[in-house]
Input
Amino acid sequence: MTGSEAVYPKTDSVTDHECDLYQSEIGSDLVQSHGVLFILSYPDLIIQQVSANLSDHFNLLPEDVLGQSLSNLLEPDSIALIQQILPTNQPTQLPYLRSHTPQRDWAGNFHYNEQSVLLELEPLRITYNATVPFDQ
Output
């Protein structure tokens, strides 16, 4: 599945800036089935686009979250951590974020520039010695 097929809404309104963010940070194959991809406005973290597989993980349709704050999906401590990390302007991986509904733990990968944040969430699985991303 390529990014153009997997991101909702399918629109030409994505800015050149966001396209550059996709291509430079991730490449053309954006969405893995076990995770969710978000494009957020910065600094307010409003969901501008989301992968079509959102409902596989959050029991919500993509159109239900567009224009909403990421804080409607993630716990306050997770949002505070994101807001603390983003101004560093570095690609970042956060090993532990928690969603409200369903209550689930995620690893978050962020790719950031002055206007947009690309956030990849991958569900965590618990092992005896550590918490690791699902795909490892």
Summary: The chain has a mean pLDDT of 77. The first strand starts at residue 7 and ends at 8. Strands lie at 7-8, 36-41, 47-51, 92-99, 104-112, 116-126, 131-133.
